[in-house]
Amino acid sequence: MKASLEIEDVGGLRGSRQYSLESGRLNIVESANAAGKTSVVRALASVLSVSKEAFSDDNVMKEAQKLGIRTDPRNPREGFVNVHSDQAAVQLGYDGKKERYAVKKNGNPVELPQFADSRFLLAGMMSNDSRILRQLHGLDEREADDFKWAVQELSSADRYERIAQFLKSRGEDVSESLLQSQRVVKQTKDLEKQKSDLGKKRMALDTKLAGLQRKYGDMGRALARRQGILNQLDELDGKINAQRGEISRILREELEIPRKDLNQALEKKKRLEKELADLGDMNQLRKEISAQQKEAESKLEDLTKRRNEIDGLLNLFVTAEAALREHKQDKHVKCILCEEGSLSYDKINKRLADYRHQREELNADIGDASEAIDRLRRKLEKEDERREDLRQAIKDLTTEIRNLSDAVANPEKQVRLIEATVNGYEETKKKLHGELELTKEKISKEWTDTEAERSKVSENIGKVNQQVGQLASVQVLSISVESSKAEAACNALLKVIEDSVSYAQTKAEEERQEAAKKFNDRVSSLLKSLGFTEFRNVRLNKDYRLYAERFNPRTNDYVAQQLKTLATSEKLVIALILQVALKETYLPNLPFFVIDDVIEDFDEDRRKKVIDYLVQKARDEDWFVVTTRLVEELGPPRIKYM
Amino acid sequence: MPEQGLKPSIDILAANKSLQSRQIEERLESELLRILKETIS
Q1: CA angle, corner A391, sides to A277 and A278, nearest 5?
Q2: Half-sphere exposure of A170 (CA within 13 A, CB side)
């Protein structure tokens, strides 16, 4: 099978380049030092690994940065995108698939490959920067033998763990709601008791009033009228309480969150608008930078002119030096141009050295001037980008604010309508109280005192009812649940969450154990295939630490060996075995395996074994095994097949 | 309440490697709300 790899402006390689890869063979990318072979393998690794989900995972992005597949924002000049370009692109075609990855210099993706698998960063690529070698060389935060990540991050264990963590946090929220619902039930019970006591008291007062009505028969009509008014007032109090309860509900359930969001959005918009204003006047900034740029360009022009002059002199002196080289022992030689004056080889040689030195200094100054121009250009671009980002963010916020304003408009209108209704009721109550006053004259003091007491009791019953109404629901997750059902609902939900957390944790451990078993089987079969007899029994133990036994020629036996104490070439052997085992365990169906640089670090005997093994592996599995080789006399990278 | 609770959903979410963490959390959240609604209905 063949694969086509097209790369554009990646790393040190400017412009577009095409390479053909062959499966079942070793594809060796050859070039001189710093001529771009690593850029080719990084390009290939990027299109195989940078997926949409990888972009949202900080750990994956950090790993990609360490492998040079993603630009480190602190050092964009050394990044994945060529320093003279704003964007890099990689296209890989194989097995009927066409994958494309394009990324801007600031790290923002333009196009992402569809089938990329971020596990390729840990399992499919070996270099001095890949995690296994970093770890064995003591350049990683993990201890040399701690390989839990190899069974955690690459298997589904990590996802089960994340699920368990999320559910645990939701469980804490539900526990909080459970406590709240228990408090609400108790408060409601207390209020119901108060209500019942007040009801009894009102009944007693009603009985007393009926007795007084019988006693003072002549109050007849006035009392009847009064009773009618009191009934109407009770009815109005009931209506007012119900409407106020509804207002509380709307405020709590429909307005609280959108109002909060709206205020936050308004504040954020204000902040961004201030930031945009602080960025200053665009034209003024352009003028300033443009003036600085002009100055830097004029300096560059002067320097280039001076270098050209030096180059002219250099050419003359190089010719003279070559012509006089055979007479270098003579103190003075006849001038080769006028054939009259005399020339000194030593003096000419010295001036030649001076001119070369001056030229080097000029080159350094030209480099500095070019960089200064580049810096100014980037500064302007950065300002433009920030300004554009701010404008877009403000635009998005304006839409969000409009939507949120729409969301609060209806409930607010409803609240205003209800408040108007309540005000109407209050007005009616006022009128009724006025009428009540008029009836007082005709009624005895004993009656009015009792009646005032009854009215007070009624008012208190209204207040208690209102409090009961406010305790009618409890917030569980994002749902308002009737208080009487909330405790049972929270308990049932907590049971589901606890079961699920325990299930996810058990599954995570099962996944780790299964991955470790597969990995250990692969490692032992690889040890046999590679024929590295100095090691045996290399495996992950139950704590997922790597155990290895090494041959000890003095005792003629194998003894347990600490990984950090191995020699560099032995670490390479272990790393290669682990890397291939990870590839076979986790990416058996992705036919690519990439090794950058490290093959040349093996000692000669082992290197031959490794290359033979990789050639055989490529042939047996029909893999594209891609590696690199330093060839000093070569220019840009080319591929050799083996 | 469903007998299996969240277990089938957890397995599906753990197996789907193209889902981002945020999407997994959103789906778990909506499953929890579904169970809560079933409990109180």
Answers
A1: 15
A2: 28
Per-residue pLDDT at B1 exceeds 50: no
Mean pLDDT for the stretch of residues A109-123: 91
Side chain identity at residue B32, one-letter code: L
What is the distance of C-alpha A333 from the center of its chain? 74
> pLDDT-based confidence at A12, cuts 50/70/90?
confident
Residues ≥6 apart with Cβ < 8 Å to A472: A245, A249, A482, A483
**A48: which residues sit within 8 A by CB, 6+ positions away?**
A92, A99, A113, A116, A117, A120, A124, A590, A592
Nearest residue to A614 via CA among A602, A600, A624, A604 = A624
Cβ distance of B40 and A481 shorter than 8 Å: yes
Give the number of other Cβ atoms within 10 Å of residue A609's Cβ: 16
CB of B39 within 8 Å of a chain A CB? The answer is yes
CA triple A607-A550-A626, angle to 5 deg: 25
Question: B35 CB near a chain A CB, below 8 Å?
Answer: yes
- Three-state SS across A462-475? HHHHHHHHHCCEEE
Q: Tell me if B20 and A481 make a contact (CB, 8 A cut-off).
A: no
| Residue A310: both structure tokens together | 């030096």
Inter-chain contact B14–A117, Cβ cutoff 8 Å?
A: no
- Convert the pLDDT of each residue in A260-303 to its tens digit: 899 999 999 999 998 888 776 666 767 777 787 788 788 888 88
Helix (H) or strand (E) holding A255: none
The model's confidence at residue B2, banded by pLDDT at 50, 70 and 90, is very low
Tell me, yes or no, if A60 comes closer than 8 A to chain B by beta carbon.
Answer: no
Instruction: Quote the percentage of chain A above a pLDDT of 70.
Output: 96
The mean per-residue pLDDT over the stretch A584-603 comes to 89
State whether the Cα torsion A298-A299-A304-A310 is positive or negative. Answer: positive
How many angstroms separate the CA atoms of A576 and A537, rounded?
Answer: 16
pLDDT level of residue A75 (50, 70, 90 thresholds): low
How many CB atoms are closer than 10 A to CB A246? 16
pLDDT confidence tier of residue A9, bands split at 50, 70 and 90: very high
Give me the pLDDT at residue A580, please: 92
Report angle CA A549, A553, A554 to the nearest 5 degrees. 110
> Closest Cα to residue A596, out of A127, A18, A102?
A127
Give the separation between CA A346 and CA A321, rounded to whole angstroms: 9
Q: What is the pLDDT of residues A235-250, one digit of tens each?
A: 999 899 889 889 988 9
% helix, strand, coil for chain A, step of 5:
65, 15, 20
Q: Please state whether the predicted TM-score (pTM) of the whole model is above 0.95.
A: no
